[in-house]
Amino acid sequence: MYAIVKAGSKQQKVAVGDVIQIDLVAGDEGSSVTLPVVMLVDGEKVSASGLDKASVTAEILGGTKGPKIIIQKYKNKTGYKKRQGHRQKYTQVKVTAINA
């Protein structure tokens, strides 16, 4: 059994026991977070409607950071150049239960 969940602006496929990275959520390590379900697959049965009661429960493991992204701006013949970096912050969670 697995589910497609919406976490922040992305959708991810999860099963019980999976460790995934989602957009930063507030909470302490060890606390649980509930993720809304977009689609639920149980063997041959695929459910995409009537999932108001379905949810995925996950335990927060901690925070992580994504790869460093370099942003550079440059304008020709004016001497203007700007360099900026960015690292996206994520929360690492472990899926504990899929409630149908």
From TrEMBL:
A single cellular component GO annotation: cytoplasm
Role: This protein binds to 23S rRNA in the presence of protein L20.
Subunit text: Part of the 50S ribosomal subunit. Contacts protein L20.
Family according to the record: Belongs to the bacterial ribosomal protein bL21 family.
Alphabetized GO MF terms: rRNA binding; structural constituent of ribosome
Pfam family, one: Ribosomal_L21p
Protein name: Large ribosomal subunit protein bL21
Keywords annotated in UniProt: Ribonucleoprotein, Ribosomal protein, RNA-binding, rRNA-binding
Superkingdom of origin organism: Bacteria
Gene Ontology BP, a term: translation
NCBIfam families: L21
